[in-house]
Amino acid sequence: MIEKSVINSLVEEKLKGTDSYLVDISVSPDNLISIEIDNDQGVSIDDCVALSRYVEERLDREKEDFELEVGSSGITSPFKIVRQYLKNIGNEVEVLLRSGIKLTGVLTAADDKGATVTVDKKVKTDDSKRKTTIQEDQTYSYDEIKYTKYLIRF
Q1: Which of 5, 53, 115, 131 has an alpha carbon 20 to 30 Å from 34's alpha carbon atom?
Q2: By the 8 A CB rule, do 7 and 27 touch?
Q3: Distance CA 151, CA 72 (A)
Q4: CB–CB of 72/81 below 8 Å?
């Protein structure tokens, strides 16, 4: 079986100095290698092809039989790394917490510890009969978040 660390080294070597970055690598027991990359401006098919060729040229098919898939992180895929959170600051996101609470709002901040989402919240004030919508920043650590993904509205 091909080691994930070998693939990781090859991908990091190829992407070094580019705007693209590694999101995820998986290697199945039957040597299906899946590489997922992203870019702050979007990933082109040419980026995927170039990376695929680079990795394939450096692996020995005589020694290991493998299948290689290189793709971009899909627009509806959950964020897997901090850089994806940073890329989406200012965008509307859907967050599912491990507690089961689902919320939508604008991703306003992210760092190595967690992310902040500004959500609309309806509250009743003392001087009105109707609930008023306010915006509230809610910060969660990545341990509290089951998934976060870009929210597409039509």
Answers
A1: 115
A2: yes
A3: 17
A4: no
One-letter amino acid identity for 127?
D
Question: Which pair of tokens denotes residue 132?
Answer: 């008023």
Using a 10 angstrom Cβ sphere, with 0-12 exposed, 13-18 middle and 19 or more buried, the burial of residue 55 is buried
For 105-137, the pLDDT digits (tens) are 999 999 999 999 999 998 887 777 788 888 999
Tell me what percent of the residues of the chain surpass a pLDDT of 70: 100
Query: Could you tell me the pTM of the whole model?
Result: 0.86
Alpha carbons within 13 angstroms on the beta-carbon side of residue 142 total: 14
pLDDT one-digit tens code per residue, 82-102: 999 999 999 999 999 999 999
Coil, strand or helix at 51: helix
